[in-house]
Amino acid sequence: xxxxxxxxxxxxxxxxxxxxxxxxxxxxxxxxxxxxxxxxxxxxxxxxxxxxxxxxxxxxxxxxxxxxxxxxxxxxxxxxxxxxxxxxxxxxxxxxxxxxxxxxxxxxxxxxxxxxxxxxxxxxxxxxxxxxxxxxxxxxxxxxxxxxxxxxxxxxxxxxxxxxxxxxxxxxxxxxxxxxxxxxxxxxxxxxxxxxxxxxxxxxxxxxxxxxxxxxxxxxxxxxxxxxxxxxxxxxxxxxxxxxxxxxxxxxxxxxxxxxxxxxxxxxxxxxxxxxxxxxxxxxxxxxxxxxxxxxxxxxxxxxxxxxxxxxxxxxxxxxxxxxxxxxxxxxxxxxxxxxxxxxxxxxxxxxxxxxxxxxxxxxxxxxxxxxxxxxxxxxxxxxxxxxxxxxxxxxxxxxxxxxxxxxxxxxxxxxxxxxxxxxxxxxxxxxxxxxxxxxxxxxxxxxxxxxxxxxxxxxxxxxxxxxxxxxxxxxxxxxxxxxxxxxxxxxxxxxxx
Length: 498
What we know:
Protein name: GMC family oxidoreductase
Radius of gyration: 22 Å
CATH superfamily: FAD/NAD(P)-binding domain
Family: Belongs to the GMC oxidoreductase family.
Domain Glucose-methanol-choline oxidoreductase N-terminal: 202-295
CATH architecture: 3-Layer(bba) Sandwich
Number of strands: 20
Keywords: FAD, Flavoprotein, Oxidoreductase
CATH class: Alpha Beta
Structural class: alpha/beta
Helix content: 10-25%
Number of helices: 11
Pfam family, one: GMC_oxred_C
Distance between the termini: 31 Å
CATH topology: FAD/NAD(P)-binding domain
């Protein structure tokens, strides 16, 4: 049998690829197992009908609700994971997000370490993902020890007008920190990058940045279409002894010194639950699969029938005026940011009985927003397994914040000159911000992982994806996952040389 690698990383999304980049050139042999294949550059990459109408890239699998009703999840299985389709917003959690915060729906718990501990790793992650941004525009922006590596992606003229209208209302619109070279992206086609797959041009995702950096080390190897089916504990129960995976029709296994699980918050929890008896592996706390969070979010279209919006990509600004409080000294609401520009082909599949010409008219005159509020951890919000099936029992919390943010944003849009404002919340099919199912903490009785994402039960197991997040905050989690992945990689390297 071939020699087992020193480290196996399960998954090549933001967590897995970034921890691989942090461990590269350490002298360790590293095997990355990715259940998907590389995303090919085909005509469907730029075809909104194929992406949003036909669901060309959606997975061929069904998950189930607690009542067993099936649904097709918005999980993507490619090298680079969900980041192949993300909106490339690489924003830091606010400093306050690391402390206990009282929301309308309850209390968001404190992290096991403060923002200052993660700050240097945020900076390194911004360099790795070549983030474009600007400091000094957002009053909630936490301390940065270095400026962004590149200047912000410029507003298109239609969006520059929106920025000025928001400023006129006393708001603080700020350039979104983005991992995208917009000129390179547009050289492929005139589409937004938000929810469009990245075939290698312009978007800084887990494959094009972190994984590419890791694979520069000849000791790092990637195997695609390699689906891990279970982990096996060593005889003493204190370590993971083997990783079992299927590649095509062949069953394989390896016995590494370290296992890093980075399959995504739902799949990482499901794999641990499937892998052992009496509640699964790494689950002495009974918390694996619990505290699932996914943000409470909604799309909002601000429509002015008199003015066309000729923006192509649109997604360059957001604001956090209601992030820490509701604008009147009350509890937090959340983040507001632009969506990628919608088109009639994107709108039609999401609105039943909407004629094609009406969809084109609305989309051509709308400015499209994404409203995001914090989903709080709840132990009864959980991932379960039933045989080979994943059961998602999502207990949504803090919906009052989304209700209030939607109302406030509706007023802002109308005051900006948009007489028609439409909104719709996202549902369980959109799992782009899934997190919290294998959380880290200081107490092994209440958290499966320690503050360096190491299992309290199996000391050669780390879980490095959004499942480690103890809270969801109310901004995109990708950069925070990447920063913690680099912190964990540094910890592993230092331990190896201790």
